[in-house]
C-alpha cells in the first residue's frame, strides 16, 4: 500500500544520507592523490609538461625522427614548442579514441 502523502519515504532518506556522506577522498579514487605522478585527482599542466619532455626525449632517440625534424637544427625546438601548446589536448584525444573500438 502506498505511503501517505505527508510521510517521507524511508528509502529515499537513507539514499540521501549516503550521497551526502560521499567524498572523493573517501571513494575508490582516494589513493590516487598519493599514488599518481600529479599527486592530485586530476592531471595538472605540470604533469603534461613532464610527459612531453619524456615523450620528446624518447622521440629524439629514434633515428628516423631526425630525418623529419633534425634536433640540432632550429626547427626541432620550434616543433616542440608548437606541440607543447596542444599537447594536453592531443593526450586527451588519444585517451578518448584509444578506447573507442571500431
Description:
It is a single chain. The protein contains five helices and no strands. The model has no long low-confidence stretch (mean pLDDT 78). Helix 3 crosses helix 5 (75-98). By secondary structure, it is mainly α.
Describe the protein's topology.
Elements: H1 10-21, H2 32-35, H3 45-60, H4 65-68, H5 75-98
Short description:
By secondary structure, the chain is an all-alpha fold. It is built from five helices and no strands. The longest helix has 24 residues.
- Give the termini separation: 50 Å
Q: How confident overall, as mean pLDDT?
A: 78
How would you classify the quaternary structure? single chain
What's the number of extended β-strand segments? 0
- N-to-C SSE string, H for helix and E for strand: HHHHH
Q: Percent of residues in beta strands?
A: under 5%
Measured as a percent range, the helix fraction is: 55-70%
Radius of gyration, in angstroms, nearest whole number: 24 Å
Q: Give the biggest beta sheet.
A: none
Instruction: Give the helix tally.
Output: 5
Shape: elongated
Sequence stretches where pLDDT stays below 50 over 5 or more residues = none
Query: Structural class, please?
Result: mainly alpha
What are the salient characteristics of this protein?
mainly alpha, elongated, single chain
Amino acid at each position: 500500500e502506498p505511503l501517505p502523502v505527508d510521510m517521507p519515504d524511508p528509502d529515499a532518506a537513507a539514499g540521501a544520507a549516503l550521497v551526502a556522506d560521499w567524498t572523493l577522498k573517501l571513494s575508490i579514487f582516494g589513493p590516487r592523490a598519493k599514488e599518481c605522478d600529479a599527486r592530485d585527482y586530476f592531471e595538472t599542466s605540470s604533469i603534461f609538461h613532464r610527459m612531453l619532455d619524456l615523450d620528446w626525449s624518447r622521440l629524439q632517440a629514434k633515428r628516423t625522427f631526425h630525418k623529419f625534424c633534425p634536433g640540432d637544427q632550429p626547427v626541432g625546438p620550434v616543433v616542440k614548442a608548437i606541440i607543447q601548446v596542444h599537447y594536453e589536448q592531443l593526450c586527451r584525444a588519444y585517451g578518448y579514441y584509444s578506447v573507442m573500438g571500431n
